[in-house]
Amino acid sequence: MNFDDILKEFEASKRPGYNEDERRAEDVRLLVDAWVKERTVPELLPYEQELIDRILIRIRKQIELIEMNSIELQTHEREIKLRLVVIESELDRVQFIIRSYTRTRLQKIDKYSLYIRSNDKETAKLSNNEFAYMERHLELLLELYNSQFMKNLPESLQAIDETGGGVSMIDEPDLDRPVFVQATAENVVEVDDEEIELTKNGIYVVRYRAVKDLVETGDVRVL
User: Fold this and answer.
1) 20 within domain boundaries
2) Which domain holds residue 189?
3) Is residue 141 assigned to a domain?
4) Structural domain ending residue among the three candidates 86, 113, 140
5) Distance between CA atoms of 89 and 211, rounded to whole angstroms?
6) In this structure, are 16 and 105 located in the same domain?
7) Closest-CA residue to 91 (of 121, 67, 113)
8) Boundaries of each GINS subunit domain copy (predicted)?
9) How confident is the model at residue 193 (pLDDT cuts 50, 70, 90)?
């Protein structure tokens, strides 16, 4: 595909009824939603594998096409260059969101790795790369603790995942942390034995635990 083909594809994507453009816009919207939710809620959410894969494939193709025609870009008129600047700006925006989404998930994995590892439901939320990262992170952490101080402690005190005695050493997400949400449908949630009615399009500050299931079903949207 040459430079003119890129421009034709770009022009076609702006015409009404062009399905690829609609799919691309919908994927970006879903990515932003996943990013906002991951940054807002206290727990780790399921990894959006298929969505991320689709977007990364598009990004690679667009970058390759632009790089292949970088020399020809210098000789075309200003209007065409402006259109390509718009394409590159959109690529930068999407890449920023993906990086932020990934960093947010890794921060949660670092903080709650013992909790995630001990819970099959939580482990299932990880991508293959995230699972490998978590295992390596825990391995290095244990090596550090052992070399610095744990080897000098009695064997009975060397566990880092002790949950006995009414005190847990495993950090868990605080599901009672308040979050801002917008209801997308009429619903009722229970907080401290009190029922709260959620009206459609209403915005609320509520404990995440109360709306956790509704976030998963899409009946409320995290802001």
Assistant:
1) yes
2) 178-222
3) no
4) 113
5) 36
6) yes
7) 67
8) 79-147
9) confident
**Rounded Cα–Cα distance for residues 134 and 18 (Å):** 41
User: For the chain, where are the E strands, in sequence order?
Assistant: 178-183, 187-191, 194-198, 203-207, 220-222
Number of domains in the chain: 2
CA 141, 146, 148, 153 torsion-angle sign: positive
Tens-place pLDDT, residues 143-166: 776 666 666 666 655 555 555 555
Would you say the C-alpha torsion 73, 22, 41, 50 has a positive or negative sign? negative
CATH of the domain at 89: 1.20.58.1030
For residues 93 and 19, membership in a common domain is answered with yes
Residue type, 45: L
Query: pLDDT (tens digit, 9 = 90+) per residue, 64-90?
Result: 777 766 656 555 556 566 667 777 888
* Burial zone of 152 (CB within 10 Å; 0-12 exposed, 13-18 middle, 19+ buried): exposed
Dihedrals phi, psi of 93, to nearest 5 degrees? -65, -45
Using an 8 Å Cβ cutoff, are 195 and 189 in contact?
Answer: yes
Helix (H, G, I), strand (E, B) or coil at 113: helix
Last residue of one domain, picked from the residues 113, 133, 152: 113
Residue 170 lies in a domain: no
> Does one domain contain both 197 and 102?
no
| Cα first-last separation, the chain | 41
b or e along 80-92 (b: 16 or more beta carbons within 10 Å of the residue's beta carbon)?
beebbeeeeeeee
